[in-house]
Every structure is written in C-alpha cells, then in structure tokens.
Design a protein that fits this description.
By secondary structure, this protein is an alpha/beta fold. The protein has a single domain, classed as TIM Barrel, CATH 3.20.20.70. It is built from six helices and ten strands; from the N terminus they run βαββαβαβαββαβββα. It has helices at residues 16-23, 69-79, 92-99, 115-122, 169-173, 198-208; strands at 7-11, 29-33, 59-64, 83-86, 104-109, 127-130, 158-160, 180-185, 190-192, 195-196. Strands 1-2-3-4-5-6-7-8 form an eight-stranded parallel beta barrel. A two-stranded antiparallel sheet has the order 9-10. Helix 2 (69-79) links the parallel strand 3 and strand 4 (83-86). It is globular, with a radius of gyration of 16 Å.
C-alpha cells in the first residue's frame, strides 16, 4: 500500500458557492474547463468571482483543448491560473511555450502512450494525466485498465483519471505505481454537470487520505 500522500484534483467547477464548499475539504487542485465543447465549460466570459479561491494552498487549473496560445495566455493572466492542463493534441513545442509562462503544466495522454512519447513531453511538462479517451475531445468519464500503467518509470509523475468514483478510494490507495502523485475526479462526484456533490467528495477525501 502506498504511504505517500495522494493529491486530489477536482475538475469541472462552474459555481462560486460550490467552489467555496469544495475548498473546505482542502483539495490540492481545482479545475476550470475552458473547452467550449464541455458541459462544464466556464463560459465565454466567466465571472472572475468563480476563480477566487479562499486560501493560497489550492492551485487553480485551467483545462484547455487545442486552444490558441494567445487565448491560453490571456486566461492565465486574467484568472490567475497556477496550472495549465492540456487535454488535446498539443505538440511538445506547444507545451514548451506554455511552460515559459512560469506555471505548472499537465499534459493529458492516452494510458497506452509509448515511452518515447512520454520522454519527449517530460522535458516540458510537470505532470502527465492518464485518461480514457472519449468519442470527441476530452475524457470519456469511464475507467481504463490501470494495469497499463504498471510499467511506467517511477520518475514520470502523473495523475490518474477516468471514471474515478465514490467507491474507488481504497483501490487507488492500494495501487503500487511509483509515479502516481494524485487523482483527478469529476463527473462521478456531481449532482449535475458542474455542481459537485460535497458530501460524496468529503467521504472520498477522508478515505483516500487515511
């Protein structure tokens, strides 16, 4: 069983009050989706109040899918993002340019990505996030075979995503994956798209942090 603390990223936030409730649980990361095709899109001109996190310990993650660099940079500046998550087909050079903004970069890849591809991106990102691909852009909200990650080298830090729900804290804690630094949760902890079930998240946080 893993002894290192597993960090928690809750993605798909759309409501300031819901965010305030969520932050009482002390997640390490909260994610805001800037991809227009998502049900959890923050909107074309989101209220800056949505990004006012109580306390500096929680990092704000902006999630983008093949977005123009200037739009990403604008969002970083306006909303004070701490992390950019790239969930599309962004190139290594694109990641390098985002990394020059002096923030953390998460690159989402298919869990079956080869070692050569991982090594190329690793020079320019801080974390990987492995998710099951959906029919369109973004994740499917479904689990993939976690055994696909067993051969990853321990020096590649990553988040586990894809259909993680209320009953998965124990199985995640039991994983023996050297590079696993955190989990990314979203749709399985919602009352409806963009509004998180705080009670269910509180139980999950308590269980996974044992």
């Amino acid at each position: 069983m893993r002894k290192a603390k597993i960090q928690i990223k809750v993605c798909g936030i759309r409501d300031p009050h819901n965010l305030e409730e969520l932050c009482t649980l002390d997640p390490e990361f909260v994610g805001f989706i800037f991809y227009r095709g998502s049900k959890r899109h923050v909107g074309e001109h989101p209220d800056p109040a949505l990004f006012r996190i109580p306390g500096p310990a929680v990092k704000k993650v902006g999630v983008f899918v093949d977005e123009k660099l200037d739009r990403v940079r604008m969002a970083i500046e306006i909303y004070g993002l701490d992390v950019v998550q790239l969930h599309g087909t962004e190139s290594v050079d694109y990641c390098r340019k985002i990394g020059m903004e002096e923030l953390e970069v998460i690159k989402v890849l298919d869990p079956q990505a080869g070692g050569t591809e991982l090594d190329r991106y690793r020079q320019h990102v801080d974390y990987f996030l492995f998710d099951s691909a959906g029919a369109g852009s973004g994740g499917s909200g479904e689990k993939f075979n976690w055994k696909l990650l067993e051969d990853l080298p321990a020096h590649l830090p990553f988040f586990l995503s894809g259909g993680i729900g209320p009953g998965d804290a124990g199985p995640v804690r039991s994983l023996d994956l050297g590079g696993l630094v955190g989990v990314d949760v979203n749709s399985r902890f919602e009352l409806y798209p963009g509004i998180k079930d705080i009670k269910a998240l509180k139980e999950f946080f308590s269980e996974i942090r044992k």
